[in-house]
Automatic annotation (TrEMBL):
<dbReference type="GO" id="GO:0012505">
    <property type="term" value="C:endomembrane system"/>
</dbReference>
<keyword id="KW-0489">Methyltransferase</keyword>
<keyword id="KW-0808">Transferase</keyword>
<feature type="transmembrane region" description="Helical">
    <location>
        <begin position="12"/>
        <end position="33"/>
    </location>
</feature>
<dbReference type="InterPro" id="IPR007318">
    <property type="entry name" value="Phopholipid_MeTrfase"/>
</dbReference>
<keyword id="KW-0812">Transmembrane</keyword>
<keyword id="KW-0472">Membrane</keyword>
<protein>
    <submittedName>
        <fullName>Isoprenylcysteine carboxylmethyltransferase family protein</fullName>
    </submittedName>
</protein>
<keyword id="KW-1133">Transmembrane helix</keyword>
<dbReference type="GO" id="GO:0032259">
    <property type="term" value="P:methylation"/>
</dbReference>
<dbReference type="GO" id="GO:0008168">
    <property type="term" value="F:methyltransferase activity"/>
</dbReference>
<feature type="transmembrane region" description="Helical">
    <location>
        <begin position="88"/>
        <end position="107"/>
    </location>
</feature>
<feature type="transmembrane region" description="Helical">
    <location>
        <begin position="45"/>
        <end position="67"/>
    </location>
</feature>
<dbReference type="Pfam" id="PF04191">
    <property type="entry name" value="PEMT"/>
</dbReference>
Length: 160
């Protein structure tokens, strides 16, 4: 019965997300080796990482703040919530995920590890799966969500 409840409200997604992020940021990076770049390319990637990581965190934090009372770790909308379509949500439907993806990309650029790249790709695939379920629930709660989907990018502003 408990496992059914975890699936019904999306708590299983939160658990998987926590595990993926823990493995990505706290796990080993050198199991499969690192990608080989020239020193200048490697240093440039490190500089990009230094800029992207705080930007990703800032985007995720600002997006969380903009949700106000709608913020929940679960992908299911809160009761008596509202559909936020302003701020960062005017550019992308899932700006928290976008910010986390940027931070994860920065971590890969910093480590330049094959395992980190695999984990980054797994995280992006996971956010795609989780966001589909979340969008299904949002469409059930907010009739205006279909229009919002048509005019607003999903995970990457102006791209997808």
């Amino acid at each position: 019965m408990k496992s059914k409840k975890l699936l019904q409200n999306g708590a299983a997604y939160v658990l998987v997300q926590a595990i993926l992020l823990g493995i990505l940021f706290l796990g080993p990076t050198d199991w499969w080796g690192t990608l080989t770049f020239s020193q200048s390319v490697s240093e440039t990637l490190h500089l990009i990482a230094v800029a992207l990581f705080p930007l990703g965190l800032l985007i995720a934090i600002v997006a969380a703040i903009q949700l106000k009372r709608n913020l929940t770790p679960l992908p299911m909308p809160v009761e008596r919530g509202e559909l936020i379509q302003t701020g960062l949500y005017a550019y992308v439907r899932h700006p928290i995920y976008f910010g986390v993806i940027l931070a994860a990309l920065a971590w890969f650029l910093h480590t330049q590890a094959v395992l980190t790249l695999v984990e980054l790709v797994a995280l992006i695939i996971f956010f795609e799966i989780k966001s589909k379920k979340e969008e299904y629930w949002m469409g059930q709660v907010y009739p205006e969500y279909a229009g919002y989907q048509k005019r607003t990018a999903k995970l990457i502003p102006g791209v997808y």
